[in-house]
Amino acid sequence: MKGEEPEPIESSERGNGAEAAVRLHRTGETERPRRRVLLLHGLSNSAAVWNAVSRGWPEDTEVWAADLPWRGGFDATWSLTGDSSRWLRTAMGLVPGGLDLVVAHSLSASLLLDALGNGSLDPAEYAASGPGDVEPCRRRPPGTMFVSPFYRPDPGDFEWESIASSLHDFERTIRDGIRLHAGGRLSDEKSEELGRLMCRKIGPYGWLSFFNLYLSTPWLLTERITSPCRVLVGDSDAAAPPEEGFRLAENLPDASARSLSDCGHFPMIEAPEEFVAVASRFLAELDDTGAPRAVPETLNEVSA
Predict the structure, then answer these.
(1) Region Disordered: start and end of each range (predicted)?
(2) What would the pLDDT profile of 236-267 be if each residue is shown by its tens digit?
(3) Is 0.85 topped by the overall pTM?
(4) Residue 29 to residues 50, 65, 281: CA-CA distances in angstroms?
(5) Choosing a second label site near 22 at 20 to 30 A (CA), which of 49, 65, 98, 151?
(6) Reading across the β-sheet that carries 35-40, which strands appear in turn?
């Protein structure tokens, strides 16, 4: 019934007792959806990190946000089980009717890049159903938007000092996420306290899962990621430097990058209207072409 909060779609795998490992929440709905978008959060966040971008999408677009095993407060053993990208496949497979766009932030962007590059995830398998029940192999694969990704194409880009600086930036990013999500309701001292607590819950294996993905990006087979992509960065992101996002876009076959002004690692919170505008424009471009289209130039900034 319209106006009621729809029940989430849950995976069969459980953690934390009876809690589902993956849950999908419909944040933007329409009676006759023509396009479907899935939002994938980063480490220690949750589906709620997308609350600010739940509105403003085209009227025919249905938007889903996933709670993933690396969400804050969930079972921290996700980082001990090997292929964490399988949870992305689970989330993508739960969306009714298939997908037109996948938006992945931070850790989820790293996992998705890795899975697309090594071939363990075929985006065409999750393509939206078209008129006439088109065979999946003939459907256009969903577009992908990587938000605040981590990427260094050369092993020489990592030095011994990179470990300490990345760990420091990680702790600061966790605190920033808590502060931004609270919307000014927490003092700096409380944000710091909660940030330390969250880092302890993530633990060394959780952080190493992220950092090992980061260290492996020089060997990412970007030429295999042929579906249409966009990279969105904040121009003030201290955790994932914006120039890394631009370099990623340059190395992907069909991609462009955009930077949002006065944004850090969480542009979906810091500039929600601009964020939705960029994603909606990408959807429109996919519709206009009917097939992946290369965008040769990498834009430095876009406004809503």
Answers:
(1) 1-29
(2) 999 999 999 999 999 999 999 999 999 999 99
(3) yes
(4) 15, 12, 18
(5) 151
(6) 9-10, 23-28, 61-67, 35-40, 101-105, 143-147, 229-234, 255-260
